[in-house]
Amino acid sequence: MSKLKLQLEDFASTLNTHPYAPKLLANWDRAFYIGTIDEKESYQIKINNNAVQEINLCTFDKIADDALLIQANEEILIEVFAGKLSPLKAYNAGQIALYGNMQDQTRLDAIALVLWGA
Amino acid sequence: MSKLAISKAISVAVGMAMATSCFNIVANIAKYNNMSGILAMFIGFALALALTYSFVLCAKKFPTAFGMRTYIQAGFGSSLSIFIILLYMSLIGMIGILESHLLANLFMQIWPSISPSFIIISVFLISLFLSVKNIELSLLAQLYMVIVMFLILFTVAIFNISTANFSHINYEINFSNFSTAIISSFFLLVGFESVVLVANQSRKIVKSMPRILWISVICIFFIYILINMAFVASNYNGNANAQLFLLKNIPYGEYIALVVSTLAVLTSFNTGISATGRMVYSLSREQLLPKIFMKLNDQAIPYIAIIAATGLILIASLIFKLSDIYLYGNIAAFLIVLCYLCVNLSAIKLKISANKIGKFVQYFTLVVLVLLLVSVAYSLNKDIYKLIFWLFLTLIFFMYMKYYQVLSRKKS
């Protein structure tokens, strides 16, 4: 299993066991995507019933243009999902690309704020 | 779907750039320069294109980033980027003040008994409603308003050109008026850069961002040139309100002028208010402003940030006197050139121009922007101290924000 997949699994279990998870993920049944900038490795994260249900490997060309997608190089993604690098700082510095509608982006931002306080 | 998304993005840039004050600027270019004004507008447009090049390069390097903030942060660090964003927000506020007053003034010319405060408050409330209600509604409304405004302006311009007699046309160049016209033309395009703030809704838009920036600037310029030709053709002499003059021979012309001006103001405010709200939210998210600005409504819109920003500009608008219009206009012009200069310098520092011609364009733009900055500062004359005071005030506020951030981090 790749380092990124391991980190995402860890993120999912942290999020699912967080006391605020039901509130954070309420009425947010959807899939979002995490992909490396070279488009070689990408994952679909499915959220359902207020929890992360699945993390599936997927091919980049299957991701829709308007899908909620976080893209960066592998090291940055691992640091962000480990809570070591503030996603907001990474975003403002142009290290992370974030695509998708504004409501979903803000929801991800809220998750980052609650989980990592940054 | 993607074409609609791209059209919405273009409408954000066009709507922000096209404001009711712009019609007066175009009318003055026509009045003082006649046909040579068109040449001046082409030169001003070429300068704006050179500046757009820097934005396009930055948009390519930081495809989904937070616009100007990220570009400057990459070049000069976080502190300067925050300071410049504060200046940019105050600039949006000043534009809001000027535009709302010009619109109220136009309403008063048609209905003298109407209260300017009523118009100003109404236009702010409508924009606030659109920005807070729903982002999709806001973008869709923006698109339709820009299309309607474009169609009306196009029709009015063509009508004036086709019915004019061209006996008064001349091609003489008065260099003083000509240089002023070049500078004014450059400022007509201010605001196009705000499109990057709504870019990352889909990858298609992000990939098309360079094209969207170019198309937006060209669309704005096309309609301005047409309006300028209409003013020249109808021999505008400055004795009447610009919009009313252009529509004097059209049935219900004064009401059409009101519709166009209201749309111009609403499209600018719609983008400006949303953009300012997002900036306030982002600053609050970084603990530079109180947490309350991070509150979201059920549409995930930072409504407290938007309401606070709108309220502040509205109060300032109600205090503002129309006689100060040139002062605020000049200060706003100085601030926008300063912001553009920082973005251009960042692009140069980050060495993101592709080739020698690109580098030349960037350095050329740098010289132009410095000259513009000096020219605007010079035109402020005795009021230069008011600009310095404003910069000082922003600096104090910036320092307070940094202090607040340190305190917040200690607490958490």
Comma- or semicolon-separated keywords:
heterodimer, A: 118 residues, alpha+beta, Nonspecific Lipid-transfer Protein, Chain A, 5-stranded mixed β-sheet, globular, B: 412 residues, mainly alpha, Amino acid/polyamine transporter I, 78% helix
Structural summary, described in words:
The complex is a heterodimer of chains A (118) and B (412). Chain A has 118 residues and is α+β, with helices and mostly antiparallel strands. Chain A has a single domain, classed as Nonspecific Lipid-transfer Protein, Chain A (2-Layer Sandwich), CATH 3.30.1050.10. Chain A has helices at 3-17, 21-24, 74-81, 87-92, 102-116, and strands at 30-36, 42-48, 51-58, 69-72, 97-99. A five-stranded mixed beta sheet of chain A has the order 3-2-1-4-5. In chain A, helix 1 runs parallel beside helix 3 (74-81). The longest helix of chain A has 15 residues, at 3-17. Chain B is mainly α. Chain B has a single domain (2-411), classed as Amino acid/polyamine transporter I, CATH 1.20.1740. Helices cover 78% and strands 0% of the residues of chain B. Chain B is built from 15 helices and no strands. Chain B has helices at 2-17, 20-33, 36-61, 68-76, 78-110, 116-133, 135-163, 175-188, 203-233, 242-246, 253-285, 303-319, 325-349, 356-380, 384-411. In chain B, helix 1 crosses helix 9, helix 6 packs across helix 7 and helix 6 crosses helix 11 (253-285). Chain B is globular. Chain B starts with a helix and ends with a helix. The model of chain B has no long low-confidence stretch (mean pLDDT 88). Chains A and B meet through helix 4, strand 5 and helix 5 of A and helix 4 and helix 9 of B.
